[in-house]
Amino acid sequence: MPMEIRLGDEISLDEVLAIYRANEWSSADKPDRLLAALRSSETLVTARRDGKLVGLANAISDGHLVVYFPHVLVHPDHHGEGVGKQLMHAMMERYEDFHQRCLISDFGAVAFYQRLGFTRSSDMVPMWIYQGDDH
Q1: pTM value?
Q2: Alpha-carbon dihedral 122, 103, 60, 88, rounded to 10 degrees
Q3: CATH assignment of 3-115?
């Protein structure tokens, strides 16, 4: 079945929660804020099969130099099918001329992002104040 990658797609709360809960992300515990955050992102890319949302990625950016990719999720039923790769290719194309493209990766996804050209910084340390309980 063919997959459709959409830029700026409309998303519903139910379909977003299905993916976040299937991946056990605590963002699903704040549904209204999660949906608002995704809709407010500078860029939202979705992957759909037969109209069903199977993946999404969003970007927050200053619009000129720096972009951050906070969420890249694929429903576990579709892991290993190239969905995440297509979502990230769409993002990398959109932001190809930016000075800094960054993300924070779970340990299990590091190799995936390395295959897309991301590298670990040798002279920087990721830091955050995090209010969730999963990542």
Answers
A1: 0.87
A2: 130
A3: 3.40.630.30
